[in-house]
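Page 42, continued from yesterday. The earlier attempt failed because a stray header line got pasted into the input along with the sequence. Redoing it now with the clean sequence only.
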Amino acid sequence: MKIFNNVGQATIEYLLIFSFISLIGVGLANAIGSSIAGSTKSLGWVLTQELTTGVCRSQCFYSDYKNGITD
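This time it went through. Structure tokens are written below.
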């Protein structure tokens, strides 16, 4: 009968758990980052389209916005 030395078993188990949780955390951070980047790009595109092609005759947010309108 052999007697095994189990001194480092708990350390190895904790390292495996920590690495698993770290991988999940990195994956979540990447997913959230991609989502935020996509939302920011979409918002920037919409704002660019609205501010460059919109015609503002009344109810303008910015009173000096002229966009080619001659009154």
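Notes: Residues 55 and 67 are 6 Å apart (CA to CA).
Reminder to self: strip header lines before submitting.
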